[in-house]
Design a protein that fits this description.
This protein has one domain. It has 3 helices and 11 strands; from the N terminus they run βββββαββααββββ. The strands form 2 sheets. A 6-stranded antiparallel β-sheet has the order 1-11-3-9-7-6. Strands 2, 4, 5, 8 and 10 form a 5-stranded antiparallel β-sheet that branches. The longest helix is centred in the middle third of the chain and has 10 residues. The chain is globular. It starts with 13 loop residues before the first strand and ends with a strand.
């Protein structure tokens, strides 16, 4: 379901361009709205959420899929925590489908999927690890990196039950927007992957906007 946002970018309290291979790690207060823009199209924003008051509670792909009875994320999807609580709700989406099954790229998956020589190429997992390492104040470590959302990624499940990493449904300027239902910590890796059609073999920037409580 496609749904445009009524929010005006000129009223956003924060706007930041995040380059490919860079990360975004910021708190979002209950009631605030976060928009991720796929600036040039076909990008992947690998995203994790934590309860700011208790980082042991975090986004759960399993509980989100089970609660809504749908493996894809779209407008109206409630992002559910490991404690079964609503963390955020997707309030607008001009893409139509986002993945939460495919996981994130890592040096291990680069090796298995592509080539031994790809092992040292930059990955989302390394990007998250860097974000946590230089932001010790949040108390997160590599054990806190669990299943994630891949905003803008199209990973259809085949009739045989496999996963296809397809060319994205997203395009230049398309966006997804969500409202926080609790104070959360947002961790995004703007995917640096060069070997996957999901990012068109050419990773590009995303823009992140935040609006204050309406
Ligand atoms: Zn990635």
């Amino acid at each position: 379901m496609l749904k445009e946002s009524p929010l005006n970018p000129s009223h956003a309290i924060s706007r930041r361009l995040v380059g490919a291979g860079d990360f975004f790690l910021e708190p979002l207060q209950k009631g605030q709205t976060l928009r991720i823009v796929d600036v040039e199209g076909n990008q992947a924003a690998d995203t994790l959420f934590y309860n700011l008051a208790d980082i042991a509670e975090r986004y759960s792909a399993v509980d989100t899929v089970r609660t809504q009875g749908n493996i894809y994320l779209e407008a109206g999807t409630r992002l559910i925590s490991t404690e079964g609580r609503v963390m955020l709700e997707i309030t607008a989406d001009t893409v139509g489908r986002h993945d939460t099954l495919g996981g994130a790229c890592a040096s291990e998956s680069n090796t298995v999927r592509y080539d031994l020589e790809k092992r040292h190429m930059h990955s989302c997992r390394d990007n998250w690890m860097l974000a946590l390492a230089i932001n010790e104040k949040y108390g997160l470590t590599k054990r806190d990196i669990t299943h994630n959302i891949n905003f803008f990624m199209n990973v259809p499940v085949t009739p045989e039950g496999g996963l296809d990493f397809d060319d994205g449904l997203s395009g230049p300027g398309k966006y997804v927007e969500m409202r926080a239902e609790m104070d959360v910590l947002v961790l995004i890796s703007n995917c640096p992957q060069l070997n996957n059609p999901c990012s068109g073999y050419n990773p590009t920037p995303i823009e992140i906007l935040i609006w204050d409580i309406a």
